[in-house]
Structures are given as structure tokens and as C-alpha cells.
Amino acid sequence: MKLNDYILNRFKVKKQDKKDISQINIPSEIISKNSTEYLLSTSFYPDTIILPDFEFFKNNFINTLELIYGIREKKSINLNKKGIMNLLDAGKIDCFKEEVENILFSLDSNFENLKSRLETRFSHSHKLFFMLLSYFKKEDLVFIDIETKELFFESVIITTGLGYFENEKFIIKQFTILNDAAEFEILYDIVKYLKNKKAFITFNGKTFDIPFIENRLSYYSIDHKNFEHFFNFDLLHFSKRAFKNESNSFSLKDIEKNILNKKRKNDISSEQVEIYYSNYLKTGNLKYLNPIIYHNNEDIKGMYFLLKKICEKWTK
Amino acid sequence: MDKIKKLIKKIKSENYYKGQILNIIKLEKKEPVFADNLSFIPEIKKYLDYYEIKKLFSHQEIAISEIRKGNNIIIATPTASGKTLAFDIPVLEEIKKNNKTTALFIYPTKALSNDQLNTLLNIKKITSLDFEADIYDGDTPSDKKKILREKANIIITNPYELHQILPYHWKWKKFLSNLKFLVLDESHRYRGVFGSNIALLLRRLKRILKLYNSKPQFIISTASLANPEEFSQKLTGESFILIDKSGAPSGKKYIIFWDSSFFPKKNVITQTKDLLLTTTSENFQTLCFTTSRKLSELIRIWANKEKKNIEILSYRAGYLPEVRRDIEKKLKNNEIKGVVSTNALELGIDIGHLDIIIISGYPGSIISFWQQAGRAGRKMQESAIFYLPYEDALEKYLLKNPDILIDMNFENAIISLDNQNILTGHILCAASESPLIDKNHFDDIDCENIINKLNEKGLLTKTSKGFIYSGSIRPQDIVTLDNTGGKSIKIKVDGKILEKISLNRAFNEAYPGAVFLNQGQTYIIKELNVEEGVAYAKKENVDYYTEVLKDEQVKIIEIIKNKEFKNYKLFFGKVSVTEIYKSYRIKKSGQVISYETLNLPPLKFISESVWVELGDHIKGKTIKSGFDFDGAIHATEHSLIALSPIFAICEPDDLGGVSYPVYENGKSTIFIYDAFEGGIGISKKLYEIFPLLKEKTYDLVKNCQCENGCPYCVYSSKCGNNNNPIDKYGAVIILDELI
After folding, report:
1. pLDDT at residue B488 in the model
2. Domain ranges across chain A
3. What pLDDT score does B38 carry?
């Protein structure tokens, strides 16, 4: 006897045949490539950030006596008391003379040399590293944040969000897979977006987002030599230094709450991303992707406002 | 009269000597065979001059010239024949030619890695050759790892580390792109379940190497094996030139076979202690190997109690490193006369050259026997090896048939590429390392069927770039190299995990009431919860031990191969095994104290098996001769299993067996199966070498001088029916018919 198909089908979730793009709250389009699809969502906001300029960096640099070997905060204060306020003053003292010359030379030399010089003295959360922003034009910077299926690097990236400046706007482009096979197509296209960029702005991107992306690019043998040398302004580390007295938790959400006075509405946690994605896979209904895209969009916006806040605080 | 002869004479005059020396085999002094004229770069010449090595041995010469020609080689010569130098030289030559050249040396243990590193650093110091070599493993700090990946010419690592780093191959781009040599030293360790995992790990590595257009030469070293070519081919998927004739010299050696049963009042452990005291009192530096930590401690304590003027130490892996280093140094400098050790001192640790080795209890394989024996007389001096077998059919067989031990060419190292469970795990790992694109993922292994199934299950996803990994846990964290990936049981003590063992092993060793051994400490298992995957244990010092008794049922699923002989048919195929663990016995000093019943669910698994279907007339003949056929076929099964490890290296627990006087098809049948889900290739090998196995088994049973069967011939300590019925002479009739 043949089984009743109607009864059998009652045990299955009904999949939507045609994807209904209107289910997504952020303006989006479906990109079809190599018999797979991904979702590209675009949103933009007015840009009001003012990045530190080079003169400002230079002043700060010259005023940092700790650039000299053997001088830490305490010794620097003692030297100030003796009227030695900056590197130029210190350069007049015989024992510092030669080294100060070298330090000042690095200021005029290229970015890499300067960065190496800073690395010999300070951790990457130091103010001077943040001020290296003055070496970049706004168009050089790209914000990046990913949502992944699992936390280990051999797993799949579901949404990749990029944020960048263009024509006085801050634009967010989000790439979301519509099946696992689309991950390759997204990564392939993202590399093109990153082509003219020079530095990343991330939140914990040093340990998570960037190595994760690098691992996935290498997994698919996608050439990405050009951004192996990108400078990564990891806002997590700068925040810990800038707001150490103002917040006791340094998750992006808590910083937004405690420092930026912003509270996200109906946001999901990173751990829930996989659940919504598999609900989408089961049903084919794009609405399940909304919370993921919203969460990622909020993260990038959060990074934007955090960058702005640190700029304001440290360039006063 | 030479020194050893004098010693033997002395032993024979001792009170404890009751004629135990059954056999003395003299291995004559072997003169070196030198290489003719091999030329070297000046740096290597300097190194050889430093150690006053005028000429290399013949096998080293062949190895060097074959490596220079670009061939894959396998060197299967005895311990201490200079294998390391034979591949270090051509690797370093190549690095000198091109400083970008890299080589990956894989060692099974830490001690061996350290040894190799010291050798290389020593060469560097003497020759001023310019190369970077270092160990890269779990203990290497991460900043150092980064430098090594960029700068090192030679990286020494272990399979566990390789398994973890393969997903990050892109960080190794420079090293892998320039990889010229892949060295697998001491590779006979890569056998059984471990070896089968390593074989697939190496195929994963080869797949990654293709991404970087690298095709390194393989250099394998191993102890003597019956199947070096088959083994190396299965391990790597490559073909090799075999170098197995050693040109290294050796001093005169006496192998002395000691049958402790001649003096039943003293057990073999006490006799070991007696011998040790005689050899050390006669001023021979002696190293005594035992089979367990507990025994090594016992022998030391008894020996020291009896003779206070001779210091005897014990050695085992559990000691602190400083303590171990101290004992090693004392041995090397001849500051102590005697050490009792577990197999921890078997390999890779430099302790110099000893006069006497006592092997108390068979170390599990002929390879290990010779590695222990190889500790004696490394230079040309005379030495002796005493072998004292324990109460076991296989050991006793070796005592009576020393040629099996001396010949060294009976043991097959087994690797299975067919175990679906192991293969599945490594396919998932591979897919997470680089998408599975072409069909020849693991060159010689067919994976298509499994890949399709994994795709259906959603663990792999088909993409335009190949199959990608879609599981939700990092596969390298799930796949471990020393098991088959099946269900495991955690042994927990006070909430802490003591050890993780396979389900099969848990049924054999961790049932409620069992005495479980870990690091020489005894624990009592209180509960085995199969569903939760936990066995709860409590630390208790007990002086008894337990043995489980089980019944087995086997059903044939598929016949893969068969051969027909005059009086029997031989089969190899897939079977379904049901093991019923019905009781266990408590034993103290070999005596059964009591039997306890067990209430465990039956253990069911699919495995591989070899089985013998006896010709119908054999039953008639056995009965006609006045023997019990049921007991005869049962005894035949036990003795066949007992000798199997000599031909297919494995642990006694790796095989199971069952005999049916009348099987479902009406035939009298004996099954021997792999005690692992999916099988691991042991019974497959037994199918191939069955004629040899049955011949040797016939010798064993026929020549045993016991009256009605004993643990040395047809009794098995694991038999669920308590060796009942058993008919030794009936078994001789059956085995005779098989020949």
C-alpha cells in the first residue's frame, strides 16, 4: 500500500519556494553566483567622526618621554619636575641625545618603522597606537565584524559586516550566506571590497574576526596577501585603557550601555546566531535572518560610535 | 673460558638452580660490513672524523645514496645500527645546497624527539653547518612556534601535534612549500588502531602538501618486520626501496631461555630476583625488564632486602624527570650495578652499554623483545640476555621455539585503511583543512561512499569549491589518534576523570566490581553507566585482581574472501559480534577466590573476522579416536588465538574468538575476530598467514608436556566457559587434519 503523502508532509516544515526579500528589515538584495546565493544588505548613516590629525599625533609623540629606553611613567614625572617636558628637552642631555635623535628620526620615517618603534616600548592599547589613525585617510579604513556558526576557526561564517566611509557617509554592507556553499562567494567578493583599504577597525578582531577570516580565506585558497599587513585598530584594547574607570565590563554591548548610553532593543547574543540560521535553513523563510543581520549591524554601528567616543576623549 | 660462560657456571651452582636453563642460543660476533667509497661534503667529513668514523656501514651507504637519488626508503635494521645518521647526512647535505630546504621529522614519543634534536645540534656544533632545527609540539611557546614556522629547516614533531596544526597549514606556507623530506622514525610503533589513524593523518598531510606543490621524499625507519614493504605502503600510500641488511657489527650474544617451572616452589618473579642478585654480585651491570610497575618495585624491594651491599634501583615512567635522569646517568657511568625497569627504558634514552639484560615476562611483541635485548652489548663486548617467560601459552611457546624469537621475521605490523569509523573521522578533519575537491582525496583509499553519506547527514556541504565541513564541533577535537572514534567510557574518581577508555575495553576492565589499574594504583569500579559514558571508581588498595568471563556469538554478514583447502574452508569477512559479559572471577596470586555474576547489557558491534569451516569428516574422526569434539574445537580456538600475536602484532585483548561445534549452516566453525568496531586488519592478516599459524599452533599443542591441557597450550584465562569443555588431544587431531 502506498503511504498517504498528505499525512507524511504534515511531519515536515513547509519550505518557501521563492525567497521573499521583503522579510528583511534592512534594504537587501539576493546575489546569485555559481548556483548559490547570498544576501547583500546595505545601510548608511551620516558621518560625524573627526579623526586625529598628524600634527596632533606628532605633538603627543614628542611629549612622550617613555619612548626612551629605561623611562617609565614614574621616571617621566620626575624628569618633568626637573623641567624636561618632552623629547626635545631630553635631546639636550648627553645621555639621551643619541637615542632621542633615533626616535625623532622614526617619526619622519615610514609607518612600519614608526610602528616597530612604538612596539618596542608600548602595548597595542597605548594611546599613541590609537593616534596612528592620523596616518590614514578615512577612505583607507574598514570596520569589520563577523557572525559565525561556531567559535572554532574551521566553522562557517554566516554574516560578514563591513563599514566604510564614502562621500561623508558611513556605509554598512552586510553579506549573509543563504547556504553554507555561499561562504566562498562572499569571501571572494569581500576581498575586492578590501582592495583599496589599508587598516581594519575591529572589536576583539585581533584574536577573533581577522584570524577567523584569514583562516577561511586560506581554506578556500583565496589570495589575500594585500591585507596581511593591514594595521588593526582593535577597539576592545583601546576601550579597556580609555574607560578603565567608567566600565567594569568590556563587551561591546556593555560599553555601549555604560559609556555611550545606548541600549540595544531585542538584540540576540552571538550564541543564538546559529539557531536562527538553522531555522532559516529548515524553513527557507528569510525573516529568521533578521535578528542576525540586525545584531551584526548594531555591532558595526557600536564600533563606529565607540571610535568616535575614543577620538573625543583622547584628542581633547 | 669467556666471562658469560663463567657466569652461567656460577648460576648453575646456586641453590635456586634446578635445571631451568632450557636452551642457550649463541649469536656469534658479527664483523662490520663497511661502505666502499662514499663521498661527503667537508662538513660531514669533519663530523665523521671527529668521531673517528672512517667508513660508514653498508646499509648506511645504500640509504644515503638512495636518498640522494630522490627515492623513498624504508630502513629496517636492528636497534643501534646507525639509522639516524643514514638519513641525517643526506638531509643536511640538501639543506647546505639550498638553505630554503625543509624537513619534517615525526617521532612517536617525546624522548625520541629530544634524542634526535640533540644529535642534530651536536652535528651543528661540530660541523658549523648552517641550519635551524627544533622541536615543535604542545610544549613549544607560541611566539617560538611562529619563528620556527618561518625559520626552521628541520622541525621535529609528533603525530598528535601534526593532527592539531593541519587546519592552520596556511601559517606553514613557507615551510610546507619547501618540504623535501618527511621522516618517520621508529615507525613500527604506528601499528594497530594508532597506526591506522597515523596512516590517515599522513594522507591528510599529503593532501595539504599538494596545495603547496610539495612532494617530499619519505624516509621511514623501523624495527625488523615480516612485512616492511606492505606496512610502509599502507602507512603512507607511497612505494619504497627496502634496506634491511645491516652492516653494523655486534658482539657475541647469548640468549638464555629460562623455564621457571623446573622449580615450582619459587615463582618466576622470585627467580628473576635470584638471577638479578647473582649477575650483579658477579659484577655484571644488569638491566632487568618487567611487564608492570608493580613487579619492578617488588623485585627491587626483595633484592635490596636480601643483599644490602648491592644497590638495585627501579625505573619507570611515573618517576620525576630528575630522578629518571639521575638513574640514567648512573647507569651510563657504571655507578650502579642493577636496575629493574618497565618498558620505559626500552627506547631512545641513552644509558650506555650493559652486560646483562633480564627479560622477565614477554614484552608483548618480538620487536619489543629485541629492543629490550638491544640494550646489551652495544659495542663489541660479550653480553647475555636471560628470558624468563610467564605462565601463558604464547610465552611458553617462544620458550620452546626460540627460532621464532631469533629470526625476527614473523611479525606483521598491521594497518587497516578499511575501518569506516576511523576513516569517517579523518575525512571530516580533512574537509575542515581544505575542501574535498577531487575524488582521490586519500590517494589509494575510496572515500566517495562515506563522503556522500556525510553530505546527506549535513556534516559536509557540497559547494562549487568542493565539499566543506559543516559540523558544529571542531573535528580535530573529536578524532583522537589512539582510538577508533566509537563510544568511550570515562573512568571517574571523586568527580575527576582518571582515564578515558573504549567501550569494549570498559566491558573487559571496568565492570562493577572490577579492580582497575592505573599508574600502578588499584581502583574498584562501583558502577558502569554505559548510557552516560561513565564508570565510577574508588581508590582502594587491594591485593587481588579480577578477570571477566564472557560468551560470544558471531553472525556472518558478508564473505569478502575465501579459500578452499583439502580438509577445511577458510573465510574472511564482516561479522556481527555479540559479547555477553556474564561474570567475573576474583584471583589472588593466580588462585581463584570466588566468582561473581555481572548484569551488563550485551555488547554488540560489527567487525572483521577470519573463520575456519572444518570438513565434516573431522568431527567423525575426532569422536572415533575417543575424544570430545566440543572440547576439541574449543581448545583449537584458544590455542589459535594464543599464537596469533606472533604473526599479527596485537594485544591479547585485541582479538576475540568463538567456536561452534555446529554453526547455523550445520558446519563446525571457529571464528577469530577483531575486538574493535569496524575491525582493524588483524583477522585480515590472519587469513593471509593462516597456514603458518595453524602449523605453529599444532606444534604448540602437540609438544606441550602437560597432561590434559594447561595455560601453556589450550587454556585461556578469558574463557567465558571457564575452559569447559576442553580436550587437548582432540585439538591435536583437528590441527593435524588442518595441516
Report:
1. 84
2. 28-50+136-314, 54-122
3. 86
The answer, yes or no, to whether residue B627 has pLDDT greater than 60, is: yes
Average pLDDT over residues B494-510: 89
- Using CB atoms, which residue from B167, B169, B461 is nearest to A181? B461
Same domain, B459 and B599: no
- The CATH class that applies to domain A28-50+136-314 reads alpha beta
d(CA B159, nearest CA chain A) in Å: 20
B640 occurs within a structural domain: yes
Same domain, B457 and B388: no
Statement to judge: residues B289 and B234 lie in one domain: no
Distance from CA of B469 to the nearest CA of A (A): 7
- Cβ(B6)–Cβ(B278) under 8 Å? no
Tell whether B424 is covered by a domain: no
Distances (CA, A) of B439 to B199, B419, B443: 18, 19, 8
Q: Which residues of B make CB contacts under 8 Å with A? A: 167-170, 211, 432-435, 461-465, 468-470, 472-477
The answer to whether the Cβ–Cβ distance between B474 and A156 falls below 8 Å is no
Confidence grade of residue A271 (pLDDT, cut at 50, 70, 90)? confident
| Residue-averaged pLDDT of chain B | 91
Number of domains in chain B: 5
The pLDDT of residue A13: 62
In a domain, B425, yes or no: no
Residues whose CB is less than 8 angstroms from the CB of residue B432 and which lie 6 or more positions away in sequence, other chains included: A154, B167, B469, B471, B474, B475, B476
Average pLDDT over residues B300-323: 85
pLDDT confidence band for B378 (50 / 70 / 90): low
Gap between the Cα atoms of B598 and B507, Å rounded? 11
Whether the pLDDT of residue B318 is over 80: the answer is: no
How far is Cα B343 from Cα B349, in angstroms, rounded to an integer?
11
How far does chain A reach from its first CA to its final CA, in angstroms? Answer: 82
Query: Which of B170, B432, B465 is facing A154, going by the closest CB pair?
Result: B432
Does residue B367 sit in the same domain as residue B340? yes
Q: Are residues B217 and B257 in the same domain?
A: no
Kindly state whether A305 is in contact with chain B, defined as any CB-CB distance less than 8 angstroms.
no
Query: B258 and B147 share a domain?
Result: no
Looking at the complex, does the CB of residue A226 fall below 8 Å from at least one CB of chain B? no
Whether the CB-CB separation of B109 and B158 falls below 8 Å is answered with yes
What are B657-705's pLDDT values in tens digits? 999 999 999 999 999 999 988 899 999 999 999 999 999 999 989 988 8
Rounding to the nearest 10 degrees, give the CA dihedral for residues B400, B406, B409, B412.
60
CA distance A52 to chain B (A): 33
Measured distance CA(A191)–CA(A207) in Å, rounded: 20
What does the pLDDT read at residue B234?
95
Cβ distance B464 to A220 less than 8 Å, yes or no, reads: no
Cβ atoms within 10 Å, residue A229: 9
Residue A227 has pLDDT above 90, yes or no: no
- CB of A298 less than 8 A from some CB of B: no
DSSP secondary structure string for all residues of A52-118: PPHHHHHHHHHT-GGGSTT--HHHHHHHHHTT--SHHHHTTSHHHHHHHHHHHHHHHS-HHHHHHHH
Q: Which residues of B touch A214 (CB under 8 A)?
A: 170
Q: Using pLDDT thresholds of 50, 70 and 90, give the confidence band for residue B348.
A: low
Place of cell 573535528: B475
Q: Which residue of B has its CA nearest to A152?
A: B474
Residue A2: predicted pLDDT? 63
CB contact under 8 A, A218 and B169: yes
Q: For residue A214, what is the nearest residue in chain B, using CA coordinates?
A: B170
Say yes or no: B58 and B15 in one domain.
no
For B451, the domain range is: 435-478
Question: Is B502 part of any domain?
Answer: yes
CATH number at residue B47: 3.40.50.300
Report chain B residues whose CB lies below 8 A from the CB of A155: 469, 472, 474
